Amino acid sequence: IAVAPLDGAALSVASLTHDFAPPNGWTIAFGRMGPLAASANIGFDDGSVILASDDNGWWATWWLSQVRAASYSAVDSKDLVVGSAKAFDGDREARVGPGTWWLDPAAPPPAATATKVRALIESPMCASGRSPEGRIEPPVFDLADTAVTISFEIRWPSGAAQDCQGIAPFPITIDLPEPLGDRLLLDGSETPPRDATKPPPG
Q: Does the model's pTM come out above 0.90?
C-alpha cells in the first residue's frame, strides 16, 4: 500500500512533485519510514545530501531545483544507511485507488503447484489513455485455508487533470508467496472479495 506504515528501517517515496516555475523550479518529496530509522537522507550525484524533516513515521523535504535525487536513504543515529528506496525519474503521485484484477483468459488456469499467476488489471482512475504500467503498487496477500485474496493499489497519474479515455486491461504476472493449492483466487478490491477467475461485471 503506497502510504502504509513501514516496519524496521524500511523507507518509501510516496510523492515526488516538480514545479517548473522560473528561474530554477523546485521539488517536493515525502514518504514513509520505519521506526528503526532515525531520519531520511536524500542524496545527489554531486555528493550533496539533504536531511529530511520527519515525524510519526513520515519524512518530508524540498529542494530549490528540478535536479533528480540519486538516492533516498534511511539512516540510524550514527548516520549509517539502514534502509533505502529506489530513485526514479519523473513525478510520483501519492494518491492511490484499488486495482481490479482477474485471471487472464488467454492463459491456462493456474495449477495447484502454481506460484505465478497471469492476470489482467484495470485502473480505477482517469489517465488520459495511459496504462497503469509503473504505477501498480506491490500486491497485498491474505492467505487462508480456502482462498488467496490478492489486493492491488494503483497510483494516480501525475500531472494536470486527466481525460477519461477507455483503455484495455493491463497484463501482469502475480508472484504468489506459496503454491496456490486447491484454494480460490479472490480480488480484494471489493468487499466482499470477488471471484478472480472471471472479469468484473460490465
A: no
In the chain, the amino acid numbered 116 is K
Q: In Å, how far from its chain's centre is CA 140?
A: 11
β partners of residue 117 = 174
pLDDT digits (tens, 9 = 90+) for 31-42: 999 999 999 999
Nearest partner of 35 among 60, 3, 14, 9, judged by Cα? 9
Sign of the C-alpha dihedral computed for residues 96, 102, 108 and 113 taken in this order: positive
Contact (CB, 8 A) for 29 and 108: no
- Determine the pLDDT at residue 41: 96
Taking alpha carbons only, the member of 197, 126, 200 closest to residue 167 is 126
Torsion of CA 110, 111, 115, 120, to 10 degrees: 0
User: Which set of grid coordinates corresponds to residue 148?
Assistant: 488467496
Question: What Cα–Cα distance (Å) separates residue 15 from each residue in 28, 110, 121?
Answer: 8, 36, 23
142: left (phi over 0), alpha (psi -120 to 50) or beta: beta
Exposed e or buried b per residue across 133-143, where buried means at least 16 C-beta atoms within 10 angstroms of its C-beta: eebbbebeeee
